[in-house]
Amino acid sequence: xxxxxxxxxxxxxxxxxxxxxxxxxxxxxxxxxxxxxxxxxxxxxxxxxxxxxxxxxxxxxxxxxxxxxxxxxxxxxx
Length: 78
Fold this sequence. Notes:
By secondary structure, the protein is an all-beta fold. The chain contains no helices and eight strands.
C-alpha cells in the first residue's frame, strides 16, 4: 500500500509499505493492506512504518489525522 506522511512544511515520507502502526487518540492501531476506509485523529507519539523492503522506520509526531482509502494511507501531522 502507498503511504504519505505530510507536515505543513514538507513531505516526510512517500512510498510503499506493508504496515503502519499509529498512536490513535483512543489507543494505538495498525494498518495493513486492504484496510477498511477510515479517518481518525492521532495523538502525540511515534508512527512505526515497515517499508516494502522490510526495513523499519519511526517518525515522531505531535498529533494529526489519518485517512485510509483504497490502499492509500495519508497522514497529516504537526
